[in-house]
Amino acid sequence: MAPTTSPESPAPYGSGPQASRMPSHPGGRVRIHHLAAAKERGERFAMLTAYDQYTAQIFDEAGVEVLLIGDSAANNVFGHETSLPVTVDELLPLCRAVARSAHHALVVADFPFGSYEVSPAQAVETGVRFLKEGLVHAVKLEGGAYYADTVRAMVQAGIPVMAHIGFTPQSEHALGGYRVQGRGDDAARLIEDAKALEAAGAFCVLMEMVPAETAAAVDAAISIPTVGIGAGASTTGQVLVWQDMAGLRGGEGVRIAKFVKRYANLRETLLDAARQYADEVRTGVFPGPEHSF
């Protein structure tokens, strides 16, 4: 029987003429076991950042399986140069907006710098806040095997955890800047990190700026799904910052990472619209009689 909807219920997952979804997912909310099934079946899933109501609705309708309220809000929403300054209190309202607006996607929140490093207890407390106050379904934290006990404590508390290894932006100063991780002999370290995080209970491992060969080795070494950003095509999922994906981020002096593919040029579209609006206001074209009561 074909699924039906009512005006009060959300449309079927991935509805719309251009939408698609994981073949293993029958509809409704994406859960962590659907991502696990995707890897088992050789399927892939998409992940994008979202920080507000409208992008969450649009990406959800498009069939994007995972939405991330990233600490990248620091430099894509709040105007900072890096992700380091953003706080839990700043991210929570963004989390609520996305979680309330996405009826199908799995919603994941980033742990910002300073919100989990002190102890597993601090991480559990932060995770509880994100699930209770932010309404998200899972959280993501940066770090390798060193944080296995932290992940274990959170999972035991009922907080699903996505781990983030490779280049970890919150550690950019310790890593000497934005540098590819996992080259040569360092690949073994990433494999061991991933294994330790899987053993601790992480449901997924995200890899950033990792050579494709290393990422493939990590993916083969663990049974849980992987997500890549600048990590080649062998991961189960892929993630991009939506402003990069849609071409909103840009302008003079802005550097776009090698791993970014732009699927639109929203910056130019909005710039043209704003210019036309301003010109019409100045010349008296807008508002016209049709816009007046």
Describe the protein's architecture and organization.
The protein is of the alpha/beta class and 293 residues long. It is built from 11 helices and 8 strands. The protein has helices at residues 32-40, 53-61, 73-76, 88-101, 120-132, 148-156, 172-175, 187-200, 212-221, 242-245, 266-283, and strands at 45-49, 66-69, 106-110, 138-142, 161-166, 204-208, 226-229, 237-240. Strands 1-2-3-4-5-6-7-8 form an 8-stranded parallel barrel, surrounded by 7 helices. Mean pLDDT is 91; it is low at 1-19.
Which regions contain 5 or more consecutive residues with pLDDT less than 50?
Answer: 1-19
- What is the general shape? globular
Class by helix and strand content?
A: alpha/beta
Average pLDDT confidence is 91
State which percent range the strand residues make up: 5-15%
Number of strands: 8
Distance between the termini: 48 Å
> Major beta sheet, specifics?
8 strands, parallel, barrel
Summarize the structure.
This protein has 293 residues and is an alpha/beta fold. The protein has 11 helices and 8 strands.
List its salient traits.
single chain; 293 residues; alpha/beta; eight-stranded parallel β-barrel; 11 helices; 37% helix; globular; disordered N terminus; 3-methyl-2-oxobutanoate hydroxymethyltransferase; metal-binding; EC 2.1.2.11; Pyrv/PenolPyrv_kinase-like_dom
